[in-house]
Sequence to fold (132 residues):
Amino acid sequence: MRHRGRHRSFFHLAIGVVALGGSLALAGCQAPGSDSTGALTTTYQAVALDNGQVYFGKLEGLSSPYPVLTDVYYVQARVNPKTKKATNILVKQGKEWHAPDRVVLNARHIVFIEPVTAESQVAKLIQEAKKK
Fold:
């Protein structure tokens, strides 16, 4: 009987070590720009939709069926009529005729969400736009 008790203790210890190791491995594998719960911690996020449109902004209500994006920017292509050269510019939403101050998204149409890091070109362009 004593021998069986040692095996049981060893088994419980082994299970505890495996569980602890798995927890530590998962904690170390979080995405940059997110916390241990998976929540995005950067100021801005890139949200790609299934229609190909990508918005940059501050995302709220990520677990909601209708998350809200505020302080919204998007990329717009412009073609120079003389040179026919296309350039992309970052546009602040709100300059449209209806002057929207947010975008309410249908979560079923979100393809992916990524953090916009402070060092990224998008973050730098947003900071430049805010100075104007």
Observations:
- The first helix runs from residue 2 to 27.
